[in-house]
Amino acid sequence: MPEAPQLCDFLIIGGGAAGCIIARRLAERTTGRIILLEAGKSDEGDPAALFLSRLDEQTAEYDWGLMASVLPGGPASLNYSRARILGGCTNHNDCAFLIPPDSDFAEWERRGAAGWNAEAVRPYFRRIEEKVSVYRFTAPNPVSRAFVKAGQELGLPLIDFRRRIAPGVGWFPLNSKGDRRASTSVAYLHPLAALPKHLDVWTETRALTLLVRDGLVLGAGTSRGSIRVRREVILTAGAFHTPHLLMLSGIGPAAHLKEFGIGVAADRPGVGEKLRDHVAAPVVWSLRQATPPWTITPFEAVMLARMEEDQVAPDVLYHFGLRLKEKYGDHPRYGGIAHGVKASPNVTRARSTGRVSLASAEPQAAPCIALNYLSDPEGYDLRVLLKGLRYARKLADTDALRPLIAREALPGPGLRSDEDLAAFARETCETVYHASGTAAMGDPADRMSVVDPSLKVIGVAGLRICDASVFPSMVTVNIANTVMMIAEKAVDHILGQKS
Question: Can you list the domains of the chain with their CATH numbers?
């Protein structure tokens, strides 16, 4: 005889950047039962999760192993890492803790996200900092200091990026305490044994489908059986898994669902569409001597620059990396470089859009991810990326960096023309793991909107989405802090309260 379904008031699917926050805040402000589902293990006491730059040592256990195609029509050749652990990507990113410029949120409102302007979201960023420890470098690596001095030589001001986002150079604020992470699970949930009794955290439990009847979400089917809800299901599974679960459950583009024999519960053509990311291309220099060791993260320094004068905010961001090893393995194109650094420009508000779609109706099958980098019709992304590559060469030719650099390894000094650099960018373009927009927030009258400004799924009762998939447009900086803000603001929407 099958077990009776579990019953709760709120079911939160995805224990990552947003899910941990929503679970804790709801537990503080309500008394009904809350269940937080996380497909991965608990991070509590796990040294690979608690210390920065450690998860790449044990990847298979913690990574979803998703593959993505990079350029339109290309094969799925890029491992787009997504963390499979409580705390999600806040437990394997580089902990960059940045607040986007006001202009990004003005654009959100312009796209139909009423009530999400800079003034409206500011209190929620402050709430995060009441819980999350933010670290500022006091003695960064000397090579990082040389990079910062190089930017100043080119006329960029030294900026405290915790206070404002503008063209300049400086240090990454990090959500950490020294070399220990302040992920959302650490900041909001630990110690798990001391959580309120009405909050259950179920790790190693995967949601397989939403239970939908007559336009109402009743709960979810999971690897531990069915769960029914009295109030809401809150989907916080991220820009790939959120649209994937929606489509598996019959919420998405009707024609696409019918291809896989999935009954249509709600025809929402925007599900899986409008995938945006920060596309980058590598600039790698071989150093004359070994890079001195870093203490917290190999990404200490950051630079923002404006390549096109008509842009309201910086259009290129450089992560300056003190190692060449990628998060998930050594890339063969770095072979032969004993000691090197990387200053990859990324396009901060890229206009190319990709798509997340179904590969199968089986819940365990991974979604298809098409990033479609450098495909915007106006050619904006490629144009800005090429300017970013050329500007990196100016950095290398400064008094600060020139004595440290033995040679330019990538793109390589032989690539000078726009045509050669464009071919290089297409061949080597890469992600900085900032996928968003696949269940976009907007005006309910817009058929491509998936959630309304209160984060409710349009046309489906009892379901809300609160993660990077709801971004109406890309933000200028690393996205983790913005996802945390969405979670804090979501709780007020869920409870019908204001800050």
Answer: 1-65+80-135+179-273+435-499 (3.50.50.60), 138-171+279-349+374-428 (3.30.410.40)
Question: Is 434 an annotated catalytic residue?
Answer: yes
Please list, residue by residue across 43-58, b when 16 or more beta carbons sit within 10 angstroms of its beta carbon and e when fewer do. bbebebbbebbbbbee
Q: Tell me: the pLDDT tens digits for 185-225?
A: 999 999 999 999 999 999 999 999 999 999 999 999 999 99
Q: What is the largest CA-CA distance in the chain?
A: 75
Give me the amino acid identity at 167: P
Confidence tier at 12 by pLDDT (50, 70, 90)? very high
Output the DSSP codes for 372-415.
-TT--TT-HHHHHHHHHHHHHHHHHTSTTTGGGEEEEEES-TT-
Dihedral sign for Cα 356, 357, 362, 365, please. negative
Q: How far apart are alpha carbons 81 and 62 in whole angstroms?
A: 9
pLDDT in tens, 416-467: 999 999 999 999 999 999 999 999 999 999 999 999 999 999 999 999 999 9
Instruction: Report residue 145 as tokens.
Output: 């200091």
Q: H or E segment at 346? A: strand 340-347
Distance CA 275, CA 199 (A): 33
Among the listed residues 92, 190, 434, 493, the single catalytic one is 434
For β-strands 368-370 and 6-13, DSSP reports them as: unpaired
Of residues 400 and 61, more confidence is placed in: 400
Tens-place pLDDT, residues 145-182: 999 999 999 999 999 999 999 999 999 999 998 888 89
| 272, 355 contact by CB (below 8 A) | yes
The pair of structure tokens assigned to 377 is: 């019709």
Share of the chain above pLDDT 70, in %: 96
Alpha helices in 404-469 (DSSP H): 418-428
Distance between CA atoms of residues 74 and 386, nearest Å: 21
